[in-house]
Structure formats: C-alpha cells, structure tokens
From TrEMBL:
Similarity field: Belongs to the TrpF family.
Enzyme class, first EC level, given as a word: isomerase
Name of the molecule in the record: N-(5'-phosphoribosyl)anthranilate isomerase
Reaction equations catalysed: N-(5-phospho-beta-D-ribosyl)anthranilate = 1-(2-carboxyphenylamino)-1-deoxy-D-ribulose 5-phosphate
Sequence intervals crossing the membrane: none
Listed GO MF terms: isomerase activity
Pfam families found in the cross-reference section: PRAI
InterPro entries, per the entry: Aldolase_TIM (IPR013785), PRAI_dom (IPR001240), RibuloseP-bd_barrel (IPR011060), TrpF_fam (IPR044643)
C-alpha cells in the first residue's frame, strides 16, 4: 500500500471498466477483483485480465478468494498479476503464505469472535475486519459493533462491512483504521457501482482525515 499518510481506501467487487477508471481518477489505494465462488461479483479470469489492464500504476490490485483451491489461486496470480491476495474463508496461515505474496486475511466480526482472532496470520500485511459471522461470506451490507475492535491491537487493519458515504466519516474518526474497504455501500445493485456514491465516499474519508490533523 501507499505510505501511511492517510486512510487507505479499497473499492472492492469491481466489475466494469468505467467504474475502475473513476476509482483511479478518485485516487483510491486499492481495487478488489473477486474470485470467490459464492459472490455475485465473481469474475472469470478473462474478465479480470481485461479489468486489470485499466488499473493505474501505483494502485494495488487485490484478488479476493474464499476457500478457493490452491490451483485456482495460482491461475489467477499467473494470469491477472495481482499485487495483493485477500482470503475470506477458512484458509490457514500456511495456505495464505504459500503463494509468497502480500496478503490480507478477513476476520469475521459478526458473530462470536475468538479472543485471539486478531493475533492469527502474523504474516498478513493487514487484517480485514468484516461484519459477517464465522463461516459466512462478506458483502452483507451491515456494519458490526466497532467497539468490539480491541484498542490495544497493533495490527494494521481495514474496516469493512456496512460502510457507505453516510457513515464513513464517523467510522474513520471513531476507529482510526489503517484502511477502509467498501463494496455494496457504493453500489446501486450488486456489482453495479454508483459514481456519485464513489465520489462522496472518497470525499468523506478525506474529510475525516483532515479533521484528524
């Protein structure tokens, strides 16, 4: 990711070239391409390769998986050339690290969170704290109780789950995350991003960053 001078913004579940062009124009830090089989935003490798060609240099390309097999992950790496992997399922540390690439690991915050959950995956670049329950998929559109995030944790994390232009200012100022991850909160329908929401989301994150200086 970029130098730690502002809250990092990741737009996930991108499915259209025009939306990626706008995301690049808005200066987001990362764009997520989804390969999880259960996702309505899932891309084929061919679709992802075409979209990846439109992502500006300097923006992280994140390939998202959920319990995909190792062969599928490797095919995506070879064909799409992501810069970061993201794992949302039951993948253990050995599996995630086996590809010798930076990775994010999702932590389910919507159910009973194990006391040591945030200490798992020490080799992850960052954890992604999402609102789904353990064993469920992300992209629920619902926020979890942010007070459940341990204040003493030194792990970098991206806040996800139920974020949208109306609450992202409060989220950033309350939680001070390393980054934020949004998908359904900037959509008009699954996989269909809304340009006005994308713009306002970025504006509100930057407004929060300015208020903290």
């Amino acid at each position: 990711m970029n130098a730690q001078t502002h809250t990092r913004i990741k737009f996930c579940g991108m499915t259209h070239a025009d939306d990626i062009a706008l995301a690049c124009e808005l200066g987001v830090d990362a764009i997520g391409l989804v390969f999880a089989e259960r996702s309505s935003r899932r891309l084929t490798i061919e679709q992802a390769r075409a979209l990846r060609a439109g992502i500006a240099e300097g923006i992280e390309v994140v390939a998202l998986f959920m319990d995909n097999d190792a062969a599928t992950v490797q095919r995506v790496i070879d064909a799409v050339r992501p810069t970061v992997l993201q794992f949302h399922g039951r993948e253990d540390e050995a599996f995630c690290a086996a590809f010798d690439m930076p990775y994010f690991k999702a932590v389910a915050m919507g159910g009973d969170v194990a006391a040591d959950a945030l200490s798992h995956h020490p080799r992850a670049v960052a954890l992604l704290l999402d609102s789904h329950a353990s064993g469920g998929a992300g992209g629920t559109g619902h926020a979890f109780d942010w007070s459940r995030i341990p204040r003493e944790s030194a792990r970098p994390f991206l806040l996800a789950g139920g974020l949208h232009p109306e609450n992202i200012f409060d989220a950033v100022t309350a939680v001070h995350p390393w980054g934020v991850d949004v998908s359904s909160g900037i959509e008009s329908a699954p996989g269909e991003k809304d340009a006005a929401k994308m713009r306002r989301f970025v504006e509100e994150v930057r407004r929060a960053d300015s208020s903290e200086r």
